Amino acid sequence: MINVILLHVGSIVITLWGIAHIIPTRQVVNGFGSISADNKRIITMEWVAEGLTLCFIGLLVLAVTLWGGAPNAASLVVYRASALMLLVMAIWTAATGANTAIIPIKVCPLVKTAVAVLFVLGTMF
User: Is the Cα dihedral 11, 12, 16, 19 positive or negative?
Assistant: First the structure.
């Protein structure tokens, strides 16, 4: 039972984090000041892509937990692969965004890592 709670909490947190990532896209792009239209499109694409990836990971884990259950081999692969992807994303975000003054970017690796830990712990109980 505790594993399902850990997986649900992690899923909800990372899905909400993904949504929160997408919502301010226009402000993020405008924060770069006067840049070319192509650069604006690329930043928009990448910013939204990360938010969608976070939502996908969260919703995938939630769906597998709701309909597949935690104890089967396929669900364990999903949980652990999702945790690994979140850790990779956390490392990348920390490496590229650690020196920015933007607080959410500094917090982002912590959120991703915390959810990855929840997913791994959710496979252990």
Answer: positive
Domain span at residue 13 reads: 2-122
DSSP calls for 18-82: HHHHHTTHHHHHHTT-S--HHHHHHHHHHHHHHHHHHHHHHHHHHHHHHHT-TTSHHHHHHHHHH
Summarised one tens digit per residue, pLDDT across range 2-21 is 999 999 999 999 999 999 99
Q: Are 111 and 15 in contact (CB under 8 A)?
A: no
Q: How far apart are CA 48 and CA 65, in angstroms?
A: 26
Q: Residue 52 contacts by C-beta under 8 Å, 6 or more apart in sequence?
A: 18, 22
How many Å separate Cα 105 from the centre of its chain? 12
Its pTM stands at 0.92
Q: Are 32 and 47 in contact (CB under 8 A)?
A: no
Rounded distance between C-alpha atoms, residue 63 and residue 74, angstroms: 12
> Per residue in 76-103, pLDDT tens?
999 999 999 999 999 999 999 878 888 8
Total domains present in the chain: 1
